[in-house]
Design brief:
Helix content: 55-70%
Oligomer: single chain
CATH topology of the largest domain: Endonuclease I-creI
Strand content: 5-15%
Order of helices and strands: HHEEHEEHEEHEEHHHHH
Distance between the termini: 94 Å
Strand order of the largest sheet: 1-2-4-3
Number of strands: 8
């Protein structure tokens, strides 16, 4: 079976058995409550979860049930194993039941579209009970219906992190932190690349405009009539059409800074505008 973040998280949690007897009771109750089918079978897709359920059932009943291995699932028959009805009163037991709900009916995704933690419940009673357990964590889940089942879910990263940390899925929390850090780094790189590309586009457009201005002045005014400073920067731009203002400034004799280069191009543009303006003769 292919591994995934959800599967790896479940496998890790299934190997962590609580020390306190009442927490183990809450764990088995939660597994049976959210993972039992028709009340007489416990079904899971993960072998470690099946082994955990069998171990807890053996502790409660004195008999280790058999695990039936199907094509994509593991099934344990539950004859004589009553499903829980009372809600846990201790906070630690509520957290354990939330862990069991994740093991039995939860999934976790951290993909290109974002983060998603969900619990699929069979009916309104189960959804309300699990909602109470999750609210113990201080994070109220959102709710939707899918194929006749009620799904409680989180998409906010901080909420998912809190829930996973509260049920003991610390490896998943670290993994999500790595995913978020990598995603934020990629986003920063993309922003920088996009900004640089935009700057290059603007510089290319400005350089093209400068060359057009110089070509006009060469035709309508004459390069020889330009001041030495303006003629120097105009000739450098024509000789080096793709260089930046700073690079052109370093080629000047003596070298000048970018603001001065920009000022000289502004002077060429102003001269071109004056030449293009229609002359008005006084009446």
């Amino acid at each position: 079976m292919a591994s995934s973040l959800s599967a790896d998280t479940k496998d890790a949690l299934a190997r962590e058995v609580p020390d306190a007897a009442h927490c183990r009771t809450a764990l088995l109750d939660g597994l049976l409550l959210y993972g039992a089918t028709d009340g007489d079978r416990f079904v899971t897709q993960r072998n470690p979860i099946a082994r955990l359920a069998r171990s807890l059932i053996k502790e409660r009943t004195g008999t280790a049930p058999r695990i039936e291995h199907g094509a994509a699932s593991f099934t344990i028959a539950l004859p004589g194993v009553a499903l829980p009805t009372r809600k846990p009163t201790q906070k630690c037991d509520r957290l354990i039941e939330a862990r069991a709900a994740f093991l039995a009916a939860g999934s976790l995704v951290a993909g290109a579209r974002g983060y998603h933690l969900e619990f699929v419940t069979v009916d309104r009673a189960h959804a309300d009970r699990l909602g109470l357990m999750l609210r113990t964590l201080g994070r109220v889940p959102k709710e939707m219906e899918r194929k006749g089942r009620i799904v409680l879910y989180y998409k906010d990263f901080d909420a998912i992190e809190d829930v996973l940390g509260s049920i003991g899925a610390f490896a998943a929390v670290l993994h999500l932190e790595d995913v978020r850090a990598m995603r934020e780094t990629k986003n920063r790189i993309h922003r920088l690349v996009n900004t640089e590309a935009a700057n290059l586009d603007r510089a290319a457009e400005a350089a093209a405009g400068q060359r057009e201005t110089i070509a006009f002045l060469e035709s309508a005014y004459g390069m020889a009539n330009l001041s030495p400073a303006l003629r120097e920067i105009a000739e450098l731009r024509l000789a080096h059409p793709e260089e930046t203002l700073a690079e052109l400034g370093r080629r000047c004799s003596p070298p000048i800074g970018k603001p001065t280069v920009n000022s000289r191009f502004a002077g060429l543009a102003a001269l071109a505008r004056r030449i293009k303006e229609p002359r008005h003769t006084p009446r």
